[in-house]
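Complex 488.
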Amino acid sequence: MPSITVEPCTFALFGALGDLALRKLFPALYQLDGAGLLHDDTRILALAREAGSEQQHLSFIEKELRKYVGQELDEAVAQRFLARLTYLHVDFLKTDDYVALAEQVSAEQSLIAYFATPAAVYGAICENLSKVGLAENTRVVLEKPIGSDLESSRKVNDAVAQFFPENRTYRIDHYLGKETVQNLIALRFANSLFETQWNQNYISHVEITVAEQVGIEGRWGYFDKAGQLRDMIQNHLLQLLCLIAMDPPADLSADSIRDEKVKVLKALAPISPEGLTTQVVRGQYIAGYSAGKPVPGYLDEENSNTQSDTETFVALRADIRNWRWAGVPFYLRTGKRMPQKLSQIVIHFKEPSHYIFAPEQRLQISNKLIIRLQPDEGISLRVMTKEQGLDKGMQLRSGPLQLNFSDTYRSARIPDAYERLLLEVMRGNQNLFVRKDEIEAAWKWCDQLIAGWKKSGDAPKPYAAGSWGPMSSIALITRDGRSWYGDI
Ligand code: BG6
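Predicted structure with 6-O-phosphono-beta-D-glucopyranose bound:
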């Protein structure tokens, strides 16, 4: 039996036939049902613009659910879950269509309205919900991207805020729902061992890598307008940076955590025009190999514009202007068509202050805390020990103290990020969601980079698909006498 209780709700999913809903949201809701975390009375309204019979759309959703849950699908859970579903044809811009929706929502339950639609229609959906009397007690969930810069994100947020207050607005960054990301908070604040060392006295630098093996996979139209900075750095990587860099919050409440994250975002040093060439690298993949197979370059992908100068890779050095992190660079790197899927944070500790070992071993001597977000979720601390053996003398080697989550907690399945996030919306807990001022501070910092790129007119640097990015991303870190963590 689950140790938490979840109130019944009506879950209205706008954009129910879209890729995100089919690939992530229905499977996540199904898993919650399987774990006993959907109340018996919870109902799910699948809302989409597509005409056609309800039966036809529900059968399609069922087929996709079976595909994405795969072999582990439990027939009894699937039947119970599918029985909760109703399909409604709704043109999101037409108020009349919301009348039928309102008839489906019980006054005794709270409504959760999840917008898996383009952000351009969030305002209209909110207005229509309000017009048919569905704004009271409703929580709205907003998918990313919310805008493409500070100004456009403000417009979206302001349009939503006319009808829904901040404490009922849940902005998704699915990285915050990943188990290991939440573990960052436990690791930092439940282990005095780390927290006492977590500052510029002991840490020399931090690396955050979010690499993807996939290319653009049929999303060219969306991606080309965004690029890797807007698609990944503005949200996922900056959120990871915040969780690593923030000061201890007073408690675990949503606002205490988010207050600390905003302080970090506001303390990010702007990148100067010179910094744009020494501190930031943009790349775009050209043809190469992925998992041993030849793959096309970004400009040769289906539906591409062969003149595009959108970046598919970004590496940069960020500096945080505060007492804790003065002089500690944060190196961020993310790209498509990298050699493997890997999300990892490496905290590099400083060398011991007085050195007594052989001079040629000096470079290796520093502890590293490696937090692996995916795949093979786990935490490993590289510590220095003596080589074993009579013939070895005081030869040092770096070895891991390792915690692999799936081996250590063998019984527990690692839930998908969306399962956690949907559960927290149902529980009314906002601490894994992004507040308006966080989004705005992140956009503000990214906007100056985008403006700088635009002004310089420099094209992104090419890198072969299947490589770790342009050579200049290696120079970015070696210039500071460092290298990207070696085993990748
Ligand atoms: C999404 C981006 O937010 O995150 C995608 O829009 C990216 O481009 C995806 O592929 C990566 O998520 P994950 O969980 O697979 O690392």
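The chain has a mean pLDDT of 92.
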